[in-house]
Amino acid sequence: MPLCLADTRSVYDDQPYAHKRFMEKLDARIRNHDREIEKMCNFHHQGFVDAITELLKVRADAEKLMGQVTDTNRRLQEAGKEVTARTEEVVCCRLQQRNMATTVERLQLCLPVLEMYSKLKEQLQTKRYYAALKTMEQLENVYIPRVGQYRFCQIMAENLPRLRDQIKEISMSDLKDFLESIRKHSDKVGEAAMKQAQQHRTFNSAVARQASAGPYSRPLFTLNGRGREALNGQALDDMVEEEEEVLTAQDLVDFSPVYRCLHIYTILGDRETFENYYRKQRKKQARLVLQPQASMHETVEGYRRYFNQIVGFFVVEDHILHATQGLVTRAFTEELWNMALSKIIAVLRTHSSYCDDPDLVLELKNLIVIFADTLQGYGFPVNRLFDLLFEIRDQYNETLLKKWSLVFREIFELDNYSPIPVETEEEYKLVVSRFPFHDAEIEKQDFPKKLPMSQSVPQIYTQVKEFIYASLKFSESLHRSSTEIDDMLRKSTNLLLTRTLSGCLQNLIKKPHIGLTELVQIIINTTHLEQACRYLEDFITNITTVSPEAVHTTRLYGLSTFKDARHAAEGEIYTKLNQKIDEFIQLADYEWCMAESDGRASGYLMDLINFLRSTFQVFTHLPSNNNDHASMSGKVAQTACMSACKHLSTSLLQMLMDSELKQISMGAVQQFNLDVIQCELFASSEPVPGFQGDTLQLAFIDLRQLLDLFMVWDWSTYLADYGQPTSKYLRVNPTTALALLEKMKDTSKKNNIFSQFRKNDRDKQKLIETVVKQLRSLINGMSLHS
Predict the structure, then answer these.
(1) Is the Cα dihedral 157, 162, 164, 166 positive or negative?
(2) Taking the CA of residue 523 as centre, how many other CA atoms within 13 Å lie in the half-sphere pointing to its CB?
(3) Would you state the pLDDT for residue 215?
(4) pLDDT at 91
(5) Which residue, among 117, 120, 144, 142, has the nearest Cα to 131 in the 3D structure?
(6) Is the pTM higher than 0.85?
């Protein structure tokens, strides 16, 4: 073809006459072919003519045959119309039979699918989701593949995933309802579990008590000191019946939604999602359960609801742990418990610190013990809770101490601080039954008689025993040995004695309305309470059955407590005596410039001495039942008397040395001397027995030597013998003498206007000036020497 095209282009493109030559050659070629065609037609023309002739002959026969065939066909058609109709009917019947057979066969294949799908719908309506999922599995794997070419099967197959999702949503909704339900019913589940644990513990305790007591019952100590009988067989049977009536978690909670949802998600191959969702939701619920109410610490019911909810939560989790395989694991529950335990301990520490009622703290302790026993029964470790109880025990003791502090204060306020009058032997026995008092001399006396202590002593002793009972109540059910309980009781009792009772006594002693008589009675009371401490130790020993000789046994510190209180009372006696002396001295009204004395002692001083005499008579009531008490009472009286005399002497000397006092006359010194003489007479009258010689008078020796020096005017002897051990005026200080002398010097100048005209007065004035100079020189020498 490319070559032809090339030749053709050469025909038209090469030479001017090429096209003409080409056309001429082409015409020659056509003429050659026409001649060849003509030769061929001429050769076959005869045969063609013959064939046409024969064909014309046959046409007439063919038309005749055609008429015969048409007639025959007409007759045949008319004869076969009925046969054809019958044949068509037969064919239709056979086709229908075949279609029917095929339909029946296909329906037999489809009916199980439809039946299963109908069954699926029924299961969904009756909420039998687990069975519905099994039916779906059979439809997908067995039935639908057999008839998958039908449209309705395709619709079914497309609908099954939606039904699965619907089942997941419904089961998850049921699970959420279940979680909400158990959150609301956790307190009931926990209440039932704690009640069961409490009954079980009570039953075991009663059985153990009966086994240890044998056929006899043994009284048990209670808070108020009364005992209660051990439980008998009938009581045990009653407790068994009550224990059988307690409902369990299965009785209170329907767990079927959890099982159902777990099976559904397991079948759907999404178990891990379900487990994660369940655990996440339970963790959230755990945090909600562990959140306490703000007012929980106000009543025991608040704590009980809190514990019930927590117990209910973990009882449900324990049931889920054992009833399902892998929904929750032991590690998960332990993680929850450790988290909860830390939160519980923190909450209890915080809220218990607000509680100031020991009864509420005790009830809280009992709740914690039951709470711990309940969860321990489910396999949860609770040692940290018992450690917390020891912290709460210290707080319980603090609340007890506060409560007993109020009790002691009320007892002290209501006490009349006078010996207990006993009219009859019954009254005496009543007092002795409350307080261990034994005195042979008083027992020999006839009724009516008086016991040396006041009414507060047996009351204090009884309250200390009540405190021990109350402290013992907290130690019950703590799984501690008798030695540990004994140690706890002794330590708490020591705190009561050394801190609470001691503080109350110290406050009582310092109160302004407590007079000397009351202070003396307080000394007597503390003496008897001190003697009763050994009975308290025996009391604790009888409760705990721990011998006081055992190793590491704590001793009671009551002896030091009452000794300190007694010393404080004695010191307060000295202080109040001195204060009273100061009150009398403030009444002194000396005329310091008087020319001559009145010749008698001042009225205020005589009143003061009479007061001291009557006061020291009170000390005869101090206990002196034995030699120790006698020496003690004598020592207190002697110390008080000596302290009063020294304070009186010091106060009188300070009155002379008062910086505001500028002038003193010899008449005032003489009057002052008369008052000091009365003080010395009081000291020499032995207001308190037991002083040796003039020991009490030595309290006024400084004042006596100073007054003698001025009364005798013996300055030459004073100055000559100053510093010598045998000096007559050894106790006179030069500074004191100088100050008093200058006050007398100023008085002499003022009162003796014409003294310069009298030689004796001039000589005396010169003597005073000379003595003043010598005293100053003596004082300066002492300062340089020092």
Answers:
(1) negative
(2) 26
(3) 39
(4) 92
(5) 120
(6) no
Nearest Cα to 548, choosing from 472, 492, 560, 540?
540
* Widest Cα–Cα separation across the chain: 224
Place of tokens 């003796």: 752
> In Å, what is the CA distance from 264 to each residue of 140, 141, 259?
17, 18, 9
How much is the pLDDT for 541?
A: 84
Cα–Cα distance for residue pair 104/108, rounded to 1 Å: 6
In the chain, which residues have pLDDT < 70?
1-16, 201, 203-250, 479, 547-558, 618-634, 746-762, 764, 783-786
Q: Within 10 A of 37 (CB to CB), how many other CB atoms are there?
A: 9
DSSP 450: E
Tell me the H-state helices in 657-758. Answer: 666-684, 701-712, 715-721, 734-751
What is the residue type of 43?
F
Rounded distance, CA 148 to CA 154, Å?
6
d(CA 531, CA 558): 9
Confidence (pLDDT) at 214: 42
Residue 253 main-chain phi, psi, to 5 deg: -130, 135
Main-chain dihedrals φ then ψ at residue 14, nearest 5 degrees: -75, -65
Q: Which residues on neighbouring strands pair with residue 220, listed in sequence order?
A: 228
Structure token pair of residue 527:
């003496």
pLDDT at 92: 92
Three-state secondary structure call for residue 229: coil
Which region holds residue 545: left if phi is over 0, alpha if psi is between -120 and 50, else beta?
A: left
